[in-house]
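Re-run requested by the PI after the first attempt was lost when the workstation crashed. Everything re-entered from the original request form. Ligand of interest: iron/sulfur cluster.
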Amino acid sequence: MTMLRARVSDHLLRAARYQRHRDRFGWRPLFQLAALADPANGEAARELRRSVPVPRADGLPAALRFMAIGTTGTCNASCIHCPTGKAETAHVPRGEMPMELFRKLIDGIAEAGLTVTDQISFGLFGDGLVDRQVIERARYLKERLPEVQLSVNTNGAAYAPRHAELAGLVDVVGLHCESLVEETYNLLMQPLRLARVKPKLEAILRDFPGKVHVSVPVSRRNLGELEAIRAWFMERGAQCVVFDPLSNRCAEDQTLFDSLALAPAPVRCGPDITNDLIVDCDGLVLACCQDFRRLEPVGNLLHESVADTLRSASRAALNAVLAEGRHCEKTTCGGCRGDMRTPDFPFDQLAAA
Ligand SMILES: C[S@@+](CC[C@H](N)C(=O)[O-])C[C@H]1O[C@@H](n2cnc3c(N)ncnc32)[C@H](O)[C@@H]1O
Ligand code: SF4
């Protein structure tokens, strides 16, 4: 019975997310049904909380949805479809976020009485485990915001024995892996080498049982091995393996993206993204975590407080642009393309094709 409830709830949750993604009527009741079907489904409860915002008198949102922190701008990989490490992002800072700035950010959230309903992620345009202060940051965040789900996003290559200490601090390790076939992995996630990284993936799965969320950006290169990738990680105790639609990450030249993506279309986010807080390693606040070239800043934490950046005129202006469907007025939004997340992506799309 419990298993059945969990499966029904999960199904409803996926349908609700799809309806919301397509901006279709009925997604809120679907979230409610998912939470009712299985009260132990934490994801459904979280989605429900974030779908019923309660406005505050001080102009701040009731809660933030998602926060991504560029704890470091450096990555040890340069995946072929990722703007990190390419000429078009040569101007982007590659250092670590100073601890003082990091504390200002976390303290600002705590002091404003805000929570984050989805999660806080370490790792934006760089890799969460390349950051030398990742343990200290995780400890600080958990002291100040104990109820918030913390994820460290990484390709796993920098994993070292000392990182095992994170097991008591993080809720999720967002582990990015695009293939378990040497030739494909070495091509997509270059200059990483699968032979060297695989033992690290195994060590992470061993040290973080039930906490590893595997992210597999789907491309024409790995389409044939998706089930095998899922089976390999699940057999070793991963919590889930998610097939993520490929995004062009607002890149200037889309030739490579077009050769890898399945059936990309313009992505048109709604104004709810202004409830996300994206802060890069130097304090620059961005509208979107896909803005790898940092073309649309909406604040700077070096010069303003967290509350001020959340109430800023530029954030409000962006909200209006997205609400009115004027995406083309923004360089990043106008050029944003990607494959679409459907309930059983990509298998439902492949079956329909
Ligand atoms: C940009 S990475 C940054 C953090 C870390 N370096 C990593 O690889 O996980 C964050 C997430 O984006 C996903 N990702 C990478 N390239 C992508 C793309 N072109 N489209 C969609 N998702 C992508 C990865 O799987 C990962 O979960
Ligand atoms: S996708 Fe992640 S691992 Fe790959 S280059 Fe970009 S930041 Fe690094």
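Saved to the shared folder this time. The mean pLDDT is 93.
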